[in-house]
Amino acid sequence: MNKKYYQVVTDDHSRFTWVFFLASKDETSGILKSFIAQIENLVDKKVKIIRCDNGTEFKNRVMSEFCEKKGIKREFSVARTPQQNGVDERRNKTLIEAARNMLADSKLPTTFWAEAVIIGRTPSLSFMKPFGCHVTILNTLDHLGKFDGKSNDGFFGYSLNSKAFRVYNIRTRKVEENLHVRF
């Protein structure tokens, strides 16, 4: 929940988008290196070119050495010209607008902005519940006594990595993934 920044990676061919949340811009190199290794392994193809803005998080010694070692060409846009980053700039605007609207509709504070960003796939709308709606979470994690309450209140979100729901537990003040949620 302490994420201040995000990094958008878009595949030029398919326009598929990945979003990574960062506490500081220093994390950019590590995330990008890890992402490239994962994607090359997943699709069994090499990343050939990286296009990015002139930010220092992309123009540094670590990224230069990594790209040189992997044979990746780097292309940089001209400073203060979002037109040259058209696809990503439009994607950024879409993500921020979606998060802003979801937060406004659910009346949750802006600290939940990273949870509200819609990422990657288009979900099936048949089972959708409103982002931020109130839920009751069955407590399956704590060792409870016979007469202890077995549920917690929380706010609802969607998980990207599992079939569980991503919920904010009001009692623990943490975001967790849980299948046992009642709307």
TrEMBL record:
Residues 1-117 form the Integrase catalytic domain. Signal peptide: none annotated. Gene3D superfamilies: Ribonuclease H-like superfamily/Ribonuclease H. This is Ribonuclease H-like domain-containing protein. It comes from Tanacetum coccineum.
